[in-house]
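In this section we walk through a basic example: taking a raw amino acid sequence and producing a predicted 3D structure, encoded as discrete structure tokens. The instruction is simple. Fold the sequence below.
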Amino acid sequence: MFVRMDGMVLLIRKLMGMGAGLINAPGGRVDPGETPEQGAVRESQEELHVTPINVREAGVLAFQFADGYSLRCHVYTASSYEGVPTETKEAIPLWIDEREMPYGQMWADDRLWFPLLQQGRKFSGRFLFDEGIMLGCELDAEPPAAAAAD
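The resulting token sequence is shown next.
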């Protein structure tokens, strides 16, 4: 879940689990009975104590890891939130200027699709990773004109 306001984006430094130490957006598994959007909102509440408002789907990403693990990630944006971003045992909140994204501290795929999110273009991607190294990718996005028509 990417909360975006006034050229800034609310990210986290992940403290535990997959990707610990990296900067990312809040997120995680979808619980039984939840939609992916409900799961993204819940994870933002759990990880940062904020409730995203005006949520929109931005894209879908599929990840395959060399050890056989795979996951599907729904990417959402929000234009506002309720609450106060608060450090938890899972994450440290970080407001980042979108013009200065810390890609060197993020998953390698982020630099490929985050610019599409910034442009308002819906996207889908497939990525292959081995021990944190991206081995391959495919990325599709709607044309810029279609995004502008929304």
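Looking at the output, two observations stand out. Residues 2-61+72-119 form a domain with the Nucleoside Triphosphate Pyrophosphohydrolase fold (CATH 3.90.79.10). The first strand starts at residue 2 and ends at 5. In the next section we compare this with other chains.
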